[in-house]
Amino acid sequence: MKRIILVISLLVMGQASLAAEQATITSYNRSCIACHSSGVAGAPRAFNADDWAPRLAKGMPTLLQNTVNGVNAMPAKGLCPTCSEDDFAALIHYMSTPK
Q1: Do the Cβ atoms of 47 and 39 come closer than 8 Å?
Q2: Which of 9, 67, 80, 90 has the fewest CB atoms inside 10 Å of its own CB, making it the most exposed?
Q3: Contact 21, 13 (CB under 8 A)
Protein backbone atom coordinates (compact mmCIF):
# COMPACT_ATOMS: atom_id res chain seq x y z
CA MET A 1 0.00 0.00 0.00
CA LYS A 2 2.84 2.39 0.84
CA ARG A 3 4.35 1.79 -2.60
CA ILE A 4 1.10 2.64 -4.32
CA ILE A 5 0.81 5.87 -2.35
CA LEU A 6 4.44 6.70 -3.19
CA VAL A 7 3.89 6.06 -6.91
CA ILE A 8 0.72 8.18 -6.93
CA SER A 9 2.51 10.98 -5.06
CA LEU A 10 5.38 10.95 -7.55
CA LEU A 11 2.95 11.06 -10.48
CA VAL A 12 1.08 14.01 -8.97
CA MET A 13 4.33 15.89 -8.30
CA GLY A 14 5.48 15.15 -11.85
CA GLN A 15 2.23 16.54 -13.28
CA ALA A 16 2.57 19.69 -11.15
CA SER A 17 6.13 20.13 -12.36
CA LEU A 18 5.06 19.72 -16.00
CA ALA A 19 2.27 22.26 -15.51
CA ALA A 20 4.69 24.78 -14.01
CA GLU A 21 7.16 24.26 -16.86
CA GLN A 22 4.40 24.70 -19.43
CA ALA A 23 3.31 27.95 -17.74
CA THR A 24 6.91 29.20 -17.93
CA ILE A 25 7.16 28.29 -21.62
CA THR A 26 3.86 30.06 -22.29
CA SER A 27 5.11 33.19 -20.49
CA TYR A 28 8.37 33.08 -22.43
CA ASN A 29 6.53 32.80 -25.74
CA ARG A 30 4.15 35.59 -24.81
CA SER A 31 6.51 38.05 -23.15
CA CYS A 32 10.21 37.28 -23.61
CA ILE A 33 10.77 35.75 -27.02
CA ALA A 34 10.61 39.05 -28.90
CA CYS A 35 13.92 40.25 -27.46
CA HIS A 36 15.56 37.16 -25.98
CA SER A 37 15.34 34.94 -29.05
CA SER A 38 17.66 37.18 -31.08
CA GLY A 39 19.41 39.29 -28.45
CA VAL A 40 17.91 42.56 -29.65
CA ALA A 41 19.19 45.64 -27.78
CA GLY A 42 21.72 43.55 -25.87
CA ALA A 43 19.24 41.10 -24.33
CA PRO A 44 20.88 37.80 -23.41
CA ARG A 45 19.77 35.22 -25.95
CA ALA A 46 17.63 32.45 -24.56
CA PHE A 47 19.41 29.12 -24.09
CA ASN A 48 22.84 30.69 -24.78
CA ALA A 49 25.16 29.94 -21.86
CA ASP A 50 27.76 32.50 -22.95
CA ASP A 51 25.20 35.32 -22.94
CA TRP A 52 23.86 34.36 -19.53
CA ALA A 53 27.10 33.53 -17.67
CA PRO A 54 28.07 37.09 -16.69
CA ARG A 55 24.52 37.85 -15.64
CA LEU A 56 24.12 34.68 -13.59
CA ALA A 57 27.41 35.50 -11.86
CA LYS A 58 25.68 38.56 -10.38
CA GLY A 59 23.22 36.31 -8.55
CA MET A 60 19.48 35.81 -8.70
CA PRO A 61 18.64 38.77 -6.41
CA THR A 62 20.33 41.16 -8.87
CA LEU A 63 18.72 39.49 -11.88
CA LEU A 64 15.30 39.77 -10.27
CA GLN A 65 15.88 43.39 -9.29
CA ASN A 66 16.92 44.24 -12.86
CA THR A 67 13.93 42.39 -14.28
CA VAL A 68 11.39 43.99 -11.97
CA ASN A 69 12.85 47.52 -12.21
CA GLY A 70 14.15 47.36 -15.77
CA VAL A 71 17.73 47.53 -16.97
CA ASN A 72 19.31 49.02 -20.09
CA ALA A 73 16.72 48.71 -22.90
CA MET A 74 14.50 46.30 -20.94
CA PRO A 75 11.52 48.06 -19.38
CA ALA A 76 10.37 47.29 -15.86
CA LYS A 77 8.93 43.77 -15.79
CA GLY A 78 9.87 43.32 -19.43
CA LEU A 79 6.67 42.64 -21.31
CA CYS A 80 5.02 40.72 -18.44
CA PRO A 81 3.37 43.19 -16.06
CA THR A 82 1.44 40.40 -14.35
CA CYS A 83 4.47 38.17 -13.67
CA SER A 84 5.56 37.66 -10.07
CA GLU A 85 9.15 37.42 -8.87
CA ASP A 86 8.69 33.63 -8.78
CA ASP A 87 7.56 33.75 -12.41
CA PHE A 88 10.61 35.84 -13.34
CA ALA A 89 12.94 33.46 -11.47
CA ALA A 90 11.45 30.54 -13.42
CA LEU A 91 11.80 32.48 -16.69
CA ILE A 92 15.43 33.36 -15.96
CA HIS A 93 16.19 29.73 -15.17
CA TYR A 94 14.39 28.60 -18.33
CA MET A 95 16.14 31.10 -20.62
CA SER A 96 19.58 30.65 -19.09
CA THR A 97 19.59 26.86 -19.43
CA PRO A 98 21.10 25.65 -22.70
CA LYS A 99 18.80 23.45 -24.78
Answers
A1: no
A2: 9
A3: no
**Do the Cβ atoms of 59 and 67 come closer than 8 Å?**
no
Residue 96 CB partners (closer than 8 Å, separation 6+): 44, 49, 52, 55, 56
Amino acid symbol at 61 = P
**Residues 40-43: contacts with CB within 8 Å, 24+ apart?**
41/72, 41/73, 41/74, 42/72, 42/73, 43/73, 43/74
pLDDT (tens digit per residue) in 8-50: 454 445 555 677 799 899 999 999 999 999 999 999 999 999 9
